[in-house]
């Protein structure tokens, strides 16, 4: 008998009113490649999902964004509202049925908030998929607009039931316990990947969670287990290929089943037992010294600190897992949050009075975080499941912070740390257990796994002479803060630094990225003398900070500042900046939950402009956000590969209304004093540039802009460097500014914040220097200029080489300005050119750096 003779058809009635869309073209490969099954998609115009067939509710996902109906014939129809909606964790979805209910065609299943899903999810496109597609011969969707509960949306030809094959026999192989790393557990997409993999094996395969288990080849079965992040599962296979199946499935689960997953922490919403079972000791590839008294890391902020160690640790607070009735627990949480908000605003006011607006701002932002609905929902839903307020809150803020940290962005990593800070504050309120704030002695060198923004904001600069963290790299959050505070710092230091006892005398060399212990008095004396020489050199550089940077043979290089807002602009002026080469406009509005109005933006840009001397350049970079650094008020769906996704100018092109408003705001500030320039981040193609420039031109016409505002390209993607001649030839392209942080990362294919790769992400790599040199030539041929605004512009060792390559402007971190100017003055242009010519022929960054020996004072 043939295994699949067509026996009948079924009709799927439209579950939503909307436009039919072929599933093959939806922007989600798991659905588009039919890994979940045959189906179609609807672009909805209605907001109540209704049953497309009669049957039983076989599965309703805990986050209520997806539901499966099983017909009497055993056909399982999965309905998945929107894309990436699992991350909304139920917000905006109201189920009208529960698992086990029987439904008729057209019965309401889930009502959802169309606007909310549209603004928070990747897409509203709703998928209707036969989850057990082996049960159908074919599926034929209609096209055009369909009406919910009335029109036929697709017809499926059923296949005859396949004869039950012999029960698989053979050895049963069971995996080790596996922790689910997926941020939102096994929802439809990772489940589809797992089911497809399982189906490629002949063995019977089951996934077990606790007492329950499901056939690993069944979407509905696995989704019915409601496997959450951090849940422990095992997989067993029985059959001829059991061994291979378990090996492959284990690896697939551990690596996230196609999703980008941060490591599973111990403090997720649900407790995660036995983390040790699967956490593999990672072999570090960062710099390591064989000398027990010398610990190596990466230079995060230059300078030498001599002092005594203080290990900065956050105490663990003990909490009970289960609470009283949930009303009481909710009240406890609310009261603790209210008390924390009061404390924070008192602290904020005090700091404002002390004229410390920067620190005040951090605590203001913390208070705002405490009304974040996502964070509160996470806590409340755990309380409603019987958890104590403290337990639920701790899980919620750690989970929320992990999600942010998992976005791999230094700015957002800082935000994650903010969440942990403020979360800890509320936890202390809830439990009455306060973690001791250590007294800082003069000459303290802090050592920590990581420092939060408020750790650093609370650092008393007069007491702390350096810090080292085991996390982070040269362009990490800690490094940026350390440089802006002018404190020597080492990131990614060897883990044994955490074992150095408090009070030990150490020397931290921020320039070399090292920490030395067990020094003799004689050695300390030598180092202190060296420090004095460095201080004397700094003083001499400061003396001449307001003079231009001119080489010994008369070639002038502009030295300007990188800033994140008005205060930085003011500070830059005190350090000798000749203008601003990069205003990171996304930093200006980072702490906000609502988009700034056009007028608010214009006001900030005008304030920055007024802070400079009239006529000095102020280069404003349009918003540089994206999958890796979203702004709270500009939701961008999570992406598997955010550094290669909708980032930088691509966001502006996708959401032109945002870029248009920012362009108009910049134009409105054009006459405030400084010479305004604008540039677009992450340009990769000529089309990117033309699209962004067109938006600029259209708005300039509309506003009747008469002031000349030069427009430039940030060279951060190698394609721009390789095609520099074509880009330089583009009409209206006035300059290039090289973002070497990203350019290095994209050229070497190394994440700029990766602790293990940090030492290799060196912009002095000859490949990067060659790209810069080529671009300088291309621009100069057309009488245009090139600046550098990435971190390498603040690296004195690189300066003569950059000048020799033809760089016209160096845009540095504010404290570096006097020493960068001094370094320009130490060479002739001829020497610089000779160094540059040698540098591009070197084989390694080390060889390049050896060309410019640095006086260690
Ligand atoms: C860069 O990539 O070098 C740059 C200046 O941009 P950002 O560091 O803000 O990504
Ligand atoms: Mg960049």
TrEMBL record:
Classification via PROSITE patterns: PTS_EIIA_TYPE_1, PTS_EIIA_TYPE_1_HIS, PTS_HPR_DOM, PTS_HPR_HIS, PTS_HPR_SER
Reactions listed under catalytic activity: L-histidyl-[protein] + phosphoenolpyruvate = N(pros)-phospho-L-histidyl-[protein] + pyruvate
NCBIfam families, per the entry: PTBA, PTS_HPr_family, PTS_I_fam
Any single GO BP term: phosphoenolpyruvate-dependent sugar phosphotransferase system
GO cellular component, one term: cytoplasm
EC primary class: transferase
Pfam families with a match to the protein in the record: PEP-utilisers_N, PEP-utilizers, PEP-utilizers_C, PTS-HPr, PTS_EIIA_1
PANTHER family per the UniProt record, alphabetical: PHOSPHOENOLPYRUVATE-PROTEIN PHOSPHOTRANSFERASE
Entry EC no(s): 2.7.3.9
Protein name: Phosphocarrier protein HPr
Swiss-Prot/TrEMBL keywords: Cytoplasm, Kinase, Magnesium, Metal-binding, Phosphotransferase system, Sugar transport, Transferase, Transport
UniProt superkingdom: Bacteria
Gene: fruB
Chain coiled-coil ranges: none
InterPro entries per the UniProt record, alphabetical: Dup_hybrid_motif (IPR011055), HPr-like (IPR000032), HPr-like_sf (IPR035895), PEP-util_enz_mobile_dom (IPR008279), PEP-utilizing_PTS_enzyme (IPR050499), PEP_util_C (IPR000121), Phosphohistidine_dom_sf (IPR036637), PTS_EI-like (IPR006318)
Gene Ontology terms for molecular function: kinase activity; metal ion binding; phosphoenolpyruvate-protein phosphotransferase activity
Cofactor(s) of this protein: Mg(2+)
Compartment list: Cytoplasm
Primary role: General (non sugar-specific) component of the phosphoenolpyruvate-dependent sugar phosphotransferase system (sugar PTS). This major carbohydrate active-transport system catalyzes the phosphorylation of incoming sugar substrates concomitantly with their translocation across the cell membrane. The phosphoryl group from phosphoenolpyruvate (PEP) is transferred to the phosphoryl carrier protein HPr by enzyme I. Phospho-HPr then transfers it to the PTS EIIA domain.
HPr domain residues: 172-260
Record SUPFAM superfamilies: Duplicated hybrid motif, Enzyme I of the PEP:sugar phosphotransferase system HPr-binding (sub)domain, HPr-like, Phosphoenolpyruvate/pyruvate domain, Phosphohistidine domain
Domain PTS EIIA type-1, residue spans: 28-132
Family: Belongs to the PEP-utilizing enzyme family.
Species of provenance: Kineosphaera limosa NBRC 100340
């Amino acid at each position: 008998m043939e295994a699949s003779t067509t026996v009948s058809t079924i009709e799927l009635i439209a579950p939503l009113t909307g436009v039919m869309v072929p599933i093959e073209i939806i922007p989600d490969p798991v659905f588009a490649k039919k890994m979940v099954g045959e189906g179609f998609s609807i672009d909805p115009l209605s907001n109540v999902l209704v049953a497309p067939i009669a049957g039983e509710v076989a599965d309703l996902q805990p986050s209520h964004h997806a539901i499966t109906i099983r017909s009497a014939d055993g056909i399982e129809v999965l309905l998945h509202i929107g894309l990436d909606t699992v991350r909304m964790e139920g917000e905006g979805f109201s189920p009208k049925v529960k698992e086990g209910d029987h439904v008729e065609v057209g019965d309401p299943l889930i009502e959802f908030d169309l606007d909310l899903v549209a603004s928070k999810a990747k897409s509203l496109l709703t998928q209707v998929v036969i989850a057990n597609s082996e049960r159908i011969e074919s599926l034929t969707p209609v096209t055009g607009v369909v009406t919910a509960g009335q029109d036929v949306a697709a017809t499926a030809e059923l296949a005859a039931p396949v004869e039950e094959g012999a029960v698989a026999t053979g050895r049963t192989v069971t995996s080790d316990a596996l922790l689910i790393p997926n941020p939102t557990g096994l929802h439809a997409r990772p489940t589809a990947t797992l089911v497809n993999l399982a189906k490629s094996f002949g063995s019977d395969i089951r996934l077990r969670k606790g007492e329950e288990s499901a056939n690993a080849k069944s979407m509905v079965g696995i989704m019915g287990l409601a496997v959450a992040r951090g849940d422990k599962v095992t997989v067993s296979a029985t059959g001829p290929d059991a061994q291979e199946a378990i090996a492959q499935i284990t690896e697939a689960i551990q690596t996230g089943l196609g999703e980008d997953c941060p490591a599973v922490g111990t403090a997720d919403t649900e407790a995660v037992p036995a983390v040790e079972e699967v956490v593999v000791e990672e072999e570090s590839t960062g710099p390591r010294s064989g000398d027990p008294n010398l610990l190596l890391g990466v230079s995060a902020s230059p300078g030498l600190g001599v002092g005594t160690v203080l290990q900065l640790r956050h105490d663990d607070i003990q909490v009970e897992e289960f609470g009283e009735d949930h009303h009481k627990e909710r009240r406890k949480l609310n009261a603790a949050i209210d008390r924390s908000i009061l404390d924070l605003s008192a602290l904020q006011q005090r700091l404002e009075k002390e004229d410390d607006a920067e620190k005040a701002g951090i605590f203001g932002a913390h208070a705002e975080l405490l009304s974040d609905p996502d964070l509160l929902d996470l806590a409340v839903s755990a309380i409603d499941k019987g958890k104590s307020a403290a337990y639920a809150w701790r899980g919620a803020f750690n989970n929320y912070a992990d999600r942010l940290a998992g976005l791999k962005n230094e700015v957002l990593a800082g935000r994650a740390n903010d969440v942990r800070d403020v979360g800890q504050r509320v936890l202390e309120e809830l439990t009455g257990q306060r973690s001791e704030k250590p007294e800082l002695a003069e000459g303290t060198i802090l050592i920590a796994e990581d420092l939060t923004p408020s750790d650093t904001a609370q650092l008393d600069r007069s007491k702390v002479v350096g810090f080292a963290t085991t996390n982070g790299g040269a362009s990490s959050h800690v490094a940026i803060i350390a440089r802006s505070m002018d404190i020597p710092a080492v990131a990614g230091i060897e883990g044994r630094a955490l074992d150095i006892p408090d009070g030990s005398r150490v020397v931290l060399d921020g320039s070399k990225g090292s920490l030395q212990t067990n020094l003799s008095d004689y050695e300390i004396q030598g180092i202190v003398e060296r420090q004095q020489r460095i201080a004397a050199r700094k003083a001499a550089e400061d003396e001449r900070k307001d003079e231009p940077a001119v080489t010994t043979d008369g070639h002038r290089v502009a030295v300007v500042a990188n800033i994140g807002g008005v205060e930085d602009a003011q500070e830059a002026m005190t350090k000798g900046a000749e203008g601003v080469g990069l205003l990171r406009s996304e930093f200006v509005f980072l702490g906000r939950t609502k988009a700034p109005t056009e007028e608010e933006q214009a006001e900030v840009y005008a304030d920055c402009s007024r802070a400079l001397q009239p006529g000095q350049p102020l280069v404003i970079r349009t918003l540089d956000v994206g999958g890796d650094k979203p702004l709270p008020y500009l939701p961008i769906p999570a992406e598997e590969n955010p550094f290669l996704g909708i980032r930088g100018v691509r966001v502006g092109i996708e959401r032109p209304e945002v870029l248009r408003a920012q362009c108009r705001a910049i134009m409105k500030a054009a006459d405030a004093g400084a010479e305004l320039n604008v540039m677009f981040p992450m340009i990769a193609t000529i089309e990117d540039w033309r699209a962004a420039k067109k938006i600029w031109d259209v708005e300039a016409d509309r506003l009747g802009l008469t002031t000349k505002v030069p427009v430039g390209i940030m060279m951060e993607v190698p394609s721009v460097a390789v095609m520099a001649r074509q880009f330089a030839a583009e009409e209206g392209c006035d300059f290039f500014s090289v973002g070497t942080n990203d350019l290095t990362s994209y050229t070497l294919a190394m994440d700029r914040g990766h602790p293990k790769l940090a030492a290799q992400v060196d912009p002095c790599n000859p490949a990067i220097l060659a790209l810069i040199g080529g671009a300088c030539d291309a621009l100069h041929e057309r009488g245009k200029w090139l600046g550098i605004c990435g971190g390498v512009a603040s690296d004195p060792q690189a300066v003569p080489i950059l000048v020799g390559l033809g760089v016209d402007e160096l845009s540095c971190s504010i404290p570096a300005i006097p020493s960068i100017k001094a370094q320009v003055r130490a060479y002739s242009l001829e020497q610089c050119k000779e160094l540059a010519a040698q540098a591009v022929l070197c084989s390694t960054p080390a060889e390049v750096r050896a060309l410019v020996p640095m006086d260690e004072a």
